[in-house]
Amino acid sequence: MSPQSSSSRRRPLRPRHAATAGVAVLAAALSACSGGGDAADGKAAAAEKPKISVNLTGRQAKAGEPVTVKLADGKLKQVTVADAKGAKLPGKVSANGTTWTSRRVAAPGTAYQVEAVSEQGGSAKASFKTAAPQQVNKVTLAPGKHTTVGIAQPLSITFDHPVRNKAEVEKQLKVTTSNGTTGSWGWIKNYDGKDRVDWRPKEYWKSGTKVKLDARLNGIDSGGDDWFVRDYATNFTVGKSQVVKVNLDSKSTTLVRDGKTVRSLPMSAGTPGGEKASWGGTSVLMSKEGTINMRSETVGLSGSDSYNKMVAYSMRLTWSGMYAHAAPWNVAYFGNTNHSSGCVGMSTGDAGWLYREAQVGDPFEVTGSGSKGTPDPGNGYGEWNLSWSQWQAKSALS
């Protein structure tokens, strides 16, 4: 085949190659105008950060305030506000989608990271730290977690420092019961002078009731720049329904369970007519302390009334020093004469039996003549000596 014929055969192919190339260029151009352009626009949109503003800023932001995040344009999809440990503040986006507000307040001395995501997919971040508290307020809870207690045991919170914002603090205390028990918080002074708030049922608890406390105090100012820096919680179950009835006239102590007498024990209570008399009314078994050293000076007695004894089966009823316990030195008076320094004394055997049967939280109902009145609400758990309306009036929200 000659070069000329070969060249002539290649010429018709050029237009076909050119046409094919022209289709490819057109396809690329179409691709650039459609899919490729959308991807670029999408990347640009995603890269564009939404403009947000946070009400708390800087390194000395005010604690105790809800966190508010606002979006300048568009709508918020999600906002996260978390501390350094990853704990998040719960919150909610407004109906118009432009503002997110936390349901909990910012705690003092805490660094927070804020991240906001818009419905368009963009995200923005911010950070702030709240000022450290001048003083931290802590609490002591009773009863402890996972305990079983008697039917008169209140929920009790004692504060290390004075609480001036009582209403605000009380709002953060949530009590949940398994059977919808009616109760109320009441503010009182503990025997040592500290502020205390108790939640007492209207009537004695029903046996088997499960009780839970959530004290959502983190970030709350108790007053005077005195802050709580954590939440608290406890839970307990109400045990057997039993009452210890102490009769000063018959000089007997009787355990009643589910409305039926289990056993009646002869005893000798406080000598009537002075400081050695027993407290009347209702006290609650605070603790079972076993064998302890009892000294007269701790309850203000001296001279001929002084004593210093190791006492077995001691059951505390008040902070001021009234116990039920073994008192073998007083055996001649059991069942016939009240002749103690204010406590309910029994034989060692009887006291040991009651010690084993009694539950922390059981009510000791003291009746009869010769008492020195009823203990204050803060002297142990003396709130049962108040009527229901009197107790409700002690709530800061009443």
Topology:
Layout: H1 3-10, H2 13-33, H3 35-47, E1 52-54, E2 66-71, E3 76-83, E4 91-93, E5 99-105, E6 111-118, E7 123-129, E8 135-136, E9 139-142, E10 147-149, E11 155-159, H4 166-171, E12 173-177, E13 183-189, E14 195-201, E15 210-215, E16 226-227, E17 232-238, E18 242-247, E19 252-257, E20 260-266, E21 281-284, E22 287-295, E23 308-316, E24 323-326, E25 344-346, H5 348-357, E26 363-367, H6 388-392
Parallel strand pairs: 8-16, 10-17, 18-26, 24-25
Antiparallel strand pairs: 1-2, 2-5, 3-6, 4-5, 6-7, 9-11, 11-14, 12-15, 13-14, 15-17, 18-19, 19-20, 21-26, 22-23, 23-24
Helix pairs in contact: 2-3
**CATH architecture verdict of the largest domain:** Beta Barrel
CATH C-level category of the largest domain = Mainly Beta
Most strands sheet: 5 strands, mixed
Radius of gyration: 37 Å
How many E strands? 26
Tell the overall outline: elongated
Number of domains: 3
Class per helix and strand makeup: alpha+beta
CATH superfamily of the largest domain: L,D-transpeptidase catalytic domain-like
Cross-sheet strand order for the largest sheet: 20-19-18-26-21
Number of helical elements: 6
How far apart are the first and last residues' alpha carbons, in Å?
A: 115 Å
- Helix residue percentage: 10-25%
Sheet-strand content, in percent, reads 35-45%
Question: What is the arithmetic mean of pLDDT?
Answer: 89
**Could you list the spans in which at least 5 consecutive residues all have pLDDT below 50?**
1-37
Briefly note the CATH topology name of the largest domain. Answer: L,D-transpeptidase catalytic domain-like
